[in-house]
Automatic annotation (TrEMBL), chains A, B:
<dbReference type="InterPro" id="IPR011663">
    <property type="entry name" value="UTRA"/>
</dbReference>
<dbReference type="InterPro" id="IPR036390">
    <property type="entry name" value="WH_DNA-bd_sf"/>
</dbReference>
<dbReference type="Pfam" id="PF07702">
    <property type="entry name" value="UTRA"/>
</dbReference>
<keyword id="KW-0804">Transcription</keyword>
<dbReference type="InterPro" id="IPR000524">
    <property type="entry name" value="Tscrpt_reg_HTH_GntR"/>
</dbReference>
<feature type="domain" description="HTH gntR-type">
    <location>
        <begin position="1"/>
        <end position="69"/>
    </location>
</feature>
<dbReference type="Pfam" id="PF00392">
    <property type="entry name" value="GntR"/>
</dbReference>
<keyword id="KW-0238">DNA-binding</keyword>
<keyword id="KW-0805">Transcription regulation</keyword>
<dbReference type="InterPro" id="IPR050679">
    <property type="entry name" value="Bact_HTH_transcr_reg"/>
</dbReference>
<dbReference type="InterPro" id="IPR036388">
    <property type="entry name" value="WH-like_DNA-bd_sf"/>
</dbReference>
<dbReference type="InterPro" id="IPR028978">
    <property type="entry name" value="Chorismate_lyase_/UTRA_dom_sf"/>
</dbReference>
<protein>
    <submittedName>
        <fullName>GntR family transcriptional regulator</fullName>
    </submittedName>
</protein>
Length: 236, 236
DNA sequence: TAGTGGTCTAGACCACAAG
DNA sequence: TTGTGGTCTAGACCACTAC
């Protein structure tokens, strides 16, 4: 683990230990540098990390303060940061509806940037959050990049397998979101009624080297999912 | 403008001028450093900015590459970065439905962290994107922080006024999103039918010093709004 | 193994906030 | 004015990729 990541983790522990609340002040920079025995740049980087993560905010000329969201029961759709493991406070289960190895469907080729006829794993899962239906997920993995998958893996966390077992480095993703009315087929899976509202998120995942390897479409159950995003900076 | 921001802007211009496409390689780090005459740290910071903004991605041991989303017509709900001015490619108009100075409503006090009885500007607007109804926005500004607003300002960009005229420094925000069925009152304003799907986003905006100054609830027109988010890192 | 991006340091100097 | 966070530099060294 890198020094600045380690430092960030230690600062989080410090906040936890001292039970600091929203708006509470941390020790000043120089103090933190001495306390954690790192250079100013490293400390700055650690703090920047925590700032993006939404853990603190820094005010020049004033100090470093704790930032917290006060609402519970919201899912972090994506943290402004990134590598934060979300949903840890929730119990996530999956039920696999289908699992196949098929030629890449026409309409998905452009999303995955795959060659015509290339094979993909096509997976359909219902995901549960704390016992409730959270979403229907349909995902497609390029076999060129993910050579092997089986039903057992797919019942667990696929991404953990990709990183741990296959050693793939997941880089970045493009997400496209829209709201609409549930089609009949999806409604059945979510145990809702056709025409009910739904948030649909299409995501294209890339490796760190930029190659797309996974395209997924997630349709969320509107009664069992709400999201929080901690943003930094202005965006109109 | 800071040097690393300036550098980032120049690199964007470089990409533009050379008409670089998704996956195209930029000059190597050392070359960029020489070319733009900055230190390695500064260049790294500029590149980090562009990476968070979704303009490039960097691969250790390999190079720096251009990243682009290929879908058009999507609104950037919030960039993973932040200060990127969104919607610039769209024509945004506002119609003010109501504009009042009132005591802070009960249910909003906790969101704004305001004192009981404190006065707030309450504004209701319909916002149009390229001539279509995009959303209904209800927002509340604390008069303690925003001493003056009028109908004319509110018809334009409020945030621009806050930053330019009042010199306020907008820091960070917490957003809460959920999907549901349109209530009758809102449906009318959006020219939709009660029960239609809707994305609702509540946002609490803070100054850089951490004080909340604006609470807003935006309900999006599901047929005229879809969003793109460029994320970095993993998030399940 | 060569090339490329990433981390880390010490220290000078700058910019903003609060009293 | 003082204290505090932010920027910038030069350079050493590390870690990954591709050949």
């Amino acid at each position: 683990m890198l020094k600045y990541q380690q430092t960030a983790t230690e600062i989080e522990a410090y906040i936890e230990q001292h039970a600091l609340q929203q708006g509470d002040k941390l020790p000043v920079l120089d103090q933190l540098i001495r306390q954690f025995a790192v250079s100013k740049t490293t400390m700055t980087k650690a703090l920047e990390l925590l700032e993006r993560k939404g853990t603190i905010f820094q005010v020049r000329g004033s100090g470093i303060f704790v930032r917290k969201t006060n609402r519970k029961g919201y899912i972090e759709l994506f943290s402004t940061q990134g590598f934060k493991q979300n949903l840890v406070e929730h119990d996530i289960q999956s039920k696999v509806l289908s699992f196949e190895l098929i030629p890449c469907p026409e309409e998905i080729i452009e999303n995955l940037g795959s060659a015509p006829g290339e094979m993909v794993y096509a997976i359909k899962r219902i995901r549960y959050i704390d016992g409730n239906i959270m979403c229907l997920e349909e995902s497609y993995y390029r076999q060129t990049i993910v050579p092997y998958l089986n039903r057992e893996i797919v019942e667990q966390s696929i991404f953990e397998y990709l990183e741990m077992a296959l050693g793939l480095n997941i880089g970045f993703s493009d997400m496209y979101m829209h709201v609409g009315k549930l089609p009949d087929a999806v409604a059945t899976h979510l145990e809702l009624t056709a025409g009910d509202p739904a948030l649909t998120v299409e995501t294209i995942f890339h490796l760190t080297n930029g190659r797309p390897f996974d395209y997924s479409v997630i349709t969320y159950h509107y009664e069992h999912s709400q999201f929080v995003v901690q943003a930094n900076g202005l965006y109109l």
